């Protein structure tokens, strides 16, 4: 880090933002141009969908699926909370429509439906995601679901997200153009891309936004200026506007410092584990505005906004995209003041510590709960087997979806008297008070529960 950058970081450290992390990578050389907490554990939120799309592109390239393959929506997929397409259980869309839904609207239901199409169920798909992360060199990442909805055992780092951003372009250039889609029309709904910098920052061609209460506002960006190419990651923004302004500032500051082309080798190992199932088909990348699908939506749909849309991000500085700074010293740093060095992030349980694994079946078995930063969860009941505990979670979610909208269900295995049981719990609460309040609301619905700290 340069002296100027270090000074900015020190100034930013005066304010506390434990979720902040960032990194800028020269995509020609792999050199780190800037980093702040790049290997600290963070929640990925919808950046998770980058890996869902990576595995979708892999399946397309191997001939396992085509862009016209139907993607059925199970009851589980259809029940995912917004943002979502709103396809009813039993309905379907084609693969390309699901891809557009992920890169623009960040649809949670479409993510889960793709996972089930490719792997049979979302849990198996999450193991595939983690295995692929290991093969790409993403050693600080564990996936638990396909969409990034809150799960205390799902985490990543800014460095790992930059690696994934590089891998998507390098390994699947024939599909990468989907990330530059500005908007997508489906049925009567027009869905703009959540990345508000597309079309506003010269040379930006993606990649993905993400937001949950626990993660803050995240963004991975790819920018090209002539032969210069960078991938930048910002995690933990206090608002969409602060995140976007910070991303613009990093681009202005470090894109001029990136290498001007030349010879380059592969930056991200492909690490194939199975042979291709079919030849790679020629793919015509979509235009900025994706066309309306030929097939109309199946059944009734519900169009809903996610938290990031509802947050109405602050307007990005109008002058920011137009003219890159001539020198690092000439760039003001007001946006950086919103960020700071983090407090230590409480580690998850031992199994979620993410030991690398060569095969899917050995990756991060889901046996115990992971701990949120606050460590508070709501326990509903116990069952003699995992299926019973999961059934309790599903029933409770349906009965009290509003109360648990930001919580994530999981099971915990324990033994008593030589007999194995499985607890049904909801995690993701930011404090003891939040967990207690949720339990109190559940009890009003005659759902037994108690709040406990892991």
UniProtKB/TrEMBL annotation:
* Catalytic residues identified in the record: 46 (acyl-ester intermediate), 49 (proton acceptor), 106
Low complexity composition bias: residue spans: 311-325
Q: Does the keyword Acetylation apply?
A: no
Q: Where does substrate bind?
A: 208
Region (Disordered) location:
308-331
Q: Where is the SPOR domain?
A: 370-454
List, alphabetically, the SUPFAM superfamilies matched: beta-lactamase/transpeptidase-like, Sporulation related repeat
Per UniProt, the keywords (alphabetical) are:
Carboxypeptidase, Cell shape, Cell wall biogenesis/degradation, Hydrolase, Peptidoglycan synthesis, Protease, Signal
What's a Pfam family this protein contains?
SPOR
GO-annotated biological processes: cell wall organization; peptidoglycan biosynthetic process; proteolysis; regulation of cell shape
Give the coiled coil ranges: none
PROSITE patterns per record:
SPOR
Protein family (similarity comment): Belongs to the peptidase S11 family.
The protein's name is: D-alanyl-D-alanine carboxypeptidase
- Source organism per entry reads Pseudaminobacter soli
């Amino acid at each position: 880090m340069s002296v100027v950058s270090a000074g900015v970081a020190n100034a930013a450290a005066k304010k506390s933002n434990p979720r902040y992390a960032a990194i800028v990578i020269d995509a020609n050389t792999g050199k780190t141009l800037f980093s702040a907490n790049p290997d600290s554990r963070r929640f990925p939120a919808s950046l998770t969908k980058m890996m869902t799309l990576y595995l979708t592109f892999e399946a397309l390239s191997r001939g396992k699926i085509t862009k016209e393959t139907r993607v059925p929506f199970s009851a589980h997929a259809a029940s995912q909370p917004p943002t979502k397409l709103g396809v009813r259980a039993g309905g379907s869309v084609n693969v390309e429509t699901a891809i557009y839904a992920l890169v623009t609207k960040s649809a949670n239901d479409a993510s889960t439906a793709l996972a089930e199409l490719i792997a049979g169920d979302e849990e198996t798909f999450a193991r595939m995601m983690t295995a692929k992360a290991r093969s790409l060199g993403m050693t600080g990442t564990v996936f638990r679901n396909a969409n990034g909805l809150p799960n205390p055992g799902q985490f990543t780092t800014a460095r790992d997200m930059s690696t994934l951003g590089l891998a998507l372009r390098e390994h699947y250039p024939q599909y990468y153009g989907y990330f530059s889609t500005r908007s997508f029309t489906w049925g009567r709904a027009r869905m703009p891309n959540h990345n508000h910098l597309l079309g506003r920052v010269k040379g930006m061609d993606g990649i993905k936004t993400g937001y949950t209460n626990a993660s803050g506002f995240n963004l991975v960006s790819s920018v090209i200026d002539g032969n210069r190419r960078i991938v930048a990651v910002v995690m933990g923004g206090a608002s969409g506007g602060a995140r976007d302004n910070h991303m613009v500032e990093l681009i202005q500051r470090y894109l001029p410092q990136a290498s001007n082309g030349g010879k380059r080798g592969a930056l991200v190992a492909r690490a194939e584990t199975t042979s291709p199932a079919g030849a790679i088909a020629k793919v015509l990348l979509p235009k900025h505005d994706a066309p309306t699908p030929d097939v109309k939506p199946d059944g009734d749909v519900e169009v809903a906004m996610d938290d990031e849309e509802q947050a109405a991000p602050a307007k990005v500085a109008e002058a920011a995209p137009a003219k890159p700074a001539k020198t690092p010293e000439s760039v003001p740093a007001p946006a950086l003041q919103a960020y700071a060095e983090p407090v230590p992030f409480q580690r998850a349980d031992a199994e979620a510590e993410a030991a690398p694994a060569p095969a899917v079946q050995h990756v991060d078995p889901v046996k115990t709960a992971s701990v949120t930063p606050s460590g508070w969860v709501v326990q509903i009941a116990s069952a003699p087997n995992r299926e019973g505990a999961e059934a309790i979670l599903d029933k409770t979610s349906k009965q009290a979806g509003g109360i648990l909208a930001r919580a994530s269900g999981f099971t915990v295995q324990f033994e008593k008297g030589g007999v194995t049981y499985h607890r049904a719990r909801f995690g993701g609460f930011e404090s003891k008070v939040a967990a207690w309040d949720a339990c109190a609301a559940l009890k009003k619905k005659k759902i037994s529960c108690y709040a406990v700290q892991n």
